[in-house]
Write a structure and sequence with these properties.
The protein is of the alpha+beta class. 59% of the residues lie in helices and 12% in strands. The N and C termini lie close together (12 Å).
C-alpha cells in the first residue's frame, strides 16, 4: 500500500516538473515573439515506463524529452538564403547605378547634352559674325563648359567605380567575420548537443541568421552533417566553414586597379574566385564596377575622341584672324578622350586663333569653317556612321536609365520573394500568441491538477499513518 502511495507521489512530482518545464518553454516563446530569426520551441512529453511487480503494474507518470524540439523547415531556410543572395545582388547594383545615373544630370539644364547644344549653337552664332570678338569669346566659353562637362562626368563615374570597389573590400571583411562566427556557433552547438541530451536551439537560430546575412553578401552552398555542423562552400566549391574551422577571403588589385576576390587556402595559396560569384551584394557591386560603368566610360570616350578628331580636322585647315591670312594648322581641342578633352590653351588665350574661315575663302573673316563645324552636330559620326553626337549621347543616357530600371525591378521582385518566404517562415516557425496562450492555459491546468494530486496523496498517506 505504501509503495503505491509513494509511486503516486512520484507521478505527481514528475507531472509538476514536466508541466512547469512546458510552461517555461511557452513563456520563452511568448517573450521572443518579436525576436528576429527565433524559431518556436516545443516540449515533447512521453509516458514514463511503468514498474511491473507481482501485485500488478505501477504507473510512473510523465517525463519531458531532454531535447526541446525546434519548429523548423530546413528547405525553407535554404530558400531564404538563396533569396537573400539574389536580393543582395540587385540591391547593390541598383544603389550603384542610381549613383551613376545622378551623374548624367539632364533635368537641371546643366548636363552634358545641354552643353553640347550650346557648343554647336556658338559655332552657328560665330558663322553669322565670324570676326566678332563677343561671338569668339562666347564660343570659347561654351566650349570650355562642354569639355568641363566631359571631364566631370568621367571623374564622377570613376568615383562611383571606386565606391563600389570600397564596398567589395568591405564585404570581404564582413564575410570573414560571419564565417568565423558561424564556425564558433558550430562549436557551441556540438558541445551542447553532444550525446543528444540537450538542445542548442538558440545557437541554431543565430547560425541561421548569420547564414542568411552571409548569403546576402555572396552566394554559397551549405549543408548540415549528422553531428550538427554546418558546412559552407563557395559556388565553385571552396570551403568557407568546415565544422569549427573557417577559411578567409581576401582581395587583391587586378590589371584595372580594382580589387578581385580571392579564396585563401590553409597553406596561404590564393585562388581568384571573382568570376565565380553569381549572386549577393558582391556580385552587384562587381557587375556595376566592371561591366556597366566601364561601358558608360567607353562610350563617353568614344564620343569625345570622335568630336576631337572631327573638329580639329576642320579647324586645323581653316583661317584665323591672325596675320598672315594663311595661318593654319591650329587644333581647337587638346586631349585624347573625355577625361582630358580641353580647349587648346593657345585658342583660350587668343580668340583670334579660332579658325572660322575656310582656307579656300582666302580671307580671315570668312565663315565657311564655322558653318562646317556647326554642321558636325547633325553628321552621322557615331555608331559606325549611323548616329549623330546628340543621338549617341541620348542613347547612352537612355541605357543608363534602363539599367537602373532593370535593377530596380529585379530588386523589388526579389524583395517581394524574400518577404513572402519570411512570411511563410513565420507561419511555420514563428510564435503565434493565440496558440501559446492556449498552451499556457493547458499546461497551467495540468500543473494545478498535479498539485491537487500531491495534496490528495498526502491525505492518503496521513490516513494510512493514522490507521497504523
Amino acid at each position: 500500500m505504501a509503495n503505491i502511495i509513494y509511486g503516486m507521489f512520484n507521478v505527481a512530482k514528475t507531472a509538476l516538473i514536466t508541466q512547469q518545464k512546458a510552461l517555461d518553454i511557452t513563456a520563452n516563446n511568448i517573450a521572443n515573439v518579436n525576436t528576429e530569426g527565433y524559431s518556436r520551441q516545443r516540449l515533447n512529453m512521453e509516458q514514463n515506463e511503468p514498474v511491473r511487480y507481482e501485485g500488478g503494474t505501477l504507473s510512473t507518470g510523465v517525463r519531458a524529452n531532454r531535447t526541446i524540439q525546434r519548429i523548423y523547415d530546413r528547405f525553407l531556410n535554404s530558400q531564404l538564403a538563396d533569396a537573400a543572395a539574389k536580393k543582395g545582388r540587385w540591391q547593390a547594383q541598383r544603389e550603384t547605378l542610381e549613383k551613376a545615373e545622378l551623374m548624367f544630370d539632364e533635368v537641371s539644364g546643366y548636363g552634358l547634352n545641354n552643353a553640347m547644344s550650346q557648343f554647336w549653337d556658338a559655332w552657328q552664332q560665330l558663322s553669322n559674325n565670324p570676326s566678332g570678338y563677343t561671338e569668339r569669346v562666347t564660343l570659347i566659353g561654351e566650349s570650355r563648359n562642354m569639355t568641363d562637362g566631359f571631364n566631370k562626368l568621367i571623374r564622377d563615374l570613376h568615383q562611383v567605380q571606386k565606391g563600389s570597389d570600397i564596398s567589395v573590400n568591405g564585404a570581404v571583411g564582413d564575410i570573414n567575420t560571419l564565417t568565423g562566427e558561424i564556425a564558433e556557433l558550430n562549436l557551441k552547438i556540438s558541445e551542447i548537443e553532444a550525446g543528444n541530451n540537450h538542445s542548442a536551439n538558440e545557437f541554431r537560430d543565430q547560425r541561421d541568421l548569420k547564414l542568411k546575412e552571409l548569403s546576402s553578401l555572396i552566394n554559397v552552398n551549405s549543408f548540415e552533417d549528422a553531428d550538427g555542423y554546418l558546412t559552407i562552400v563557395t559556388a565553385n566549391g571552396h570551403t568557407l566553414v568546415d565544422r569549427v574551422s573557417s577559411w578567409n577571403l581576401t582581395t587583391g588589385l587586378n590589371a584595372t586597379g580594382f580589387n578581385d576576390v580571392f579564396w585563401e587556402s590553409s597553406s596561404g595559396a590564393l585562388q581568384n574566385i571573382t568570376s565565380d560569384i553569381s549572386d549577393g551584394k558582391l556580385k552587384g557591386w562587381i557587375e556595376a564596377r566592371d561591366t556597366s560603368i566601364p561601358d558608360y566610360l567607353v562610350r563617353l570616350n568614344d564620343m569625345a575622341q570622335t568630336m576631337i578628331t572631327a573638329v580639329n580636322t576642320l579647324h586645323s585647315t581653316g583661317l584665323t584672324l591672325e596675320a598672315p591670312p594663311d595661318d593654319t594648322g591650329i587644333d581647337f581641342f587638346s586631349g585624347t578622350d573625355a577625361s582630358d578633352i580641353a580647349v587648346n590653351t593657345a585658342v583660350v588665350n587668343n580668340s583670334n586663333l579660332v579658325a572660322a574661315a575656310l582656307n579656300t575663302e582666302g580671307v580671315p573673316g570668312g565663315n565657311g569653317n564655322a558653318i562646317a563645324i556647326s554642321e558636325l552636330q547633325n553628321s552621322l559620326s557615331m555608331s559606325g556612321g549611323t548616329a549623330a553626337f546628340g543621338d549617341f549621347y541620348n542613347s547612352l543616357v537612355s541605357d543608363v536609365g534602363r539599367n537602373v530600371s532593370q535593377a530596380k525591378v529585379n530588386s523589388d521582385h526579389q524583395s517581394m520573394v524574400s518577404l513572402q518566404l519570411a512570411t511563410y517562415r513565420e507561419e511555420v516557425s514563428g510564435v503565434s500568441m493565440d496558440e501559446e496562450m492556449v498552451n499556457m492555459v493547458q499546461f497551467q491546468s495540468a500543473y494545478n491538477a498535479a498539485a491537487k494530486l500531491v495534496n490528495t496523496v498526502d491525505e492518503m498517506l496521513e490516513a494510512l499513518i493514522a490507521m497504523v
